[in-house]
Amino acid sequence: ETHYWTIDPNNIQQENKKIAEAATLLQAGEVVAFPTETVYGLGADATNSDAVAKIFQAKGRPADNPLIVHVAEKAQIKTYVTEIPQIAEKLIDAFMPGPLTVILKSNQKIASIVTAGLDTIAIRIPDHTVARALIEASGRPLAAPSANTSGKPSPTQAIHVFQDLNQKIAGIVDGGEAGVGVESTVVDCTGELPLILRPGGVTKEEMEAVVGEVLVDQALKQSTEQPKAPGMKYNHYEPDAPLHLIQGDTAFFQAQIDQLISESKKVGVIASEELANELQASHIKQIGTRSDLKTIAKHLYDALRFFNEKEIDIILCETFTDQGVGQAIMNRLQKAATKEIKQ
Ligand code: TXA
Ligand code: MG
């Protein structure tokens, strides 16, 4: 049986009892899904190998893909690392709590199943009252990947977690819709310069304003390179129907739709409100406005799940600039897509 709690993140003081129930399950070595500001996480006590093994089991996650350790306060980060270099310190001070994960040298106090045997550890402080209340109430650091079945889009609502993991986990804490909508930025701070391994909620531009030059893993640009974050090499975020990214103007996009319809295909479209307003199509999912990419990020994963229960043969999706949070949006779309079509 999967316990289900609905918690108001804006009234966390009133939700002590539910938080305590979920925390008790975590202390007992069970896995519980909970909201963060990025996406829902699937948490377990990071100091308990058996508990962490249940995360991999429930998600069907490859064992060589390490997990992020979630803590409630900056002071806790020191407990698990050999040192915090100055650049990491600056990033931590500027962006935590928030959608940033730092990779630091591990002092090996966390079970090796969490780090997949690496000598580094990924740590972040979620900017979400429910997540932090749960970490504090359990008194444990929580290992937590996104709370989806491996390969599926990450969950931004509790219903997404329910669809993927009901009956496979001990509990789901429903704290409403995640605000950012894409995962945290993963930045390796073990070298001379910070190196982005996964673009996310904190942008490269925002980090550069704080620490100067920030590098980006070459594997994010050239698929021939082996990514430095193990998880980045796997298929990800895939809707049930094949997804094609369309890069071109409105007329070009419309021509792609019409061609597929002439082949008797049922076409689903994911588009900004600007493009959606101009297209002729029966099944359009709007995901926000081009003038504010944060609205696109927030609705992206819900849109990638939207057509799953519908009779759709193929999904066409607009492409976006790769500036700012657009870098994370395009990274996820390119991983989810089976094809990119350019004008
Ligand atoms: O926003 C987020 O980060 C969400 C919420 C739940 O906190 N979590 C999340 O976890 O996205 P997950 O497991 O889906 O993605 C973690 C990424 C993977 O690509 C993994 O390979 C990478 O971080 N990673 C973890 N530890 C690492 C390490 N020591 N070195 C390099 N990459 C690491
Ligand atoms: Mg994930």
UniProtKB/TrEMBL annotation:
Residues 16-202 form the YrdC-like domain. It comes from the Bacteria. Pfam families: Sua5_C, Sua5_yciO_yrdC. Its EC number is 2.7.7.87. One of its GO terms (biological process) is tRNA processing. Its main location: cytoplasm. The keyword Nucleotidyltransferase applies. It is found in: Cytoplasm. ATP binds at residues 61, 65, 120, 146, 154, 198, 237. One of its GO terms (molecular function) is L-threonylcarbamoyladenylate synthase. L-threonine binds at residues 38, 70, 124, 144, 184. Required for the formation of a threonylcarbamoyl group on adenosine at position 37 (t(6)A37) in tRNAs that read codons beginning with adenine. Belongs to the SUA5 family. This is Threonylcarbamoyl-AMP synthase. It comes from Saliterribacillus persicus.
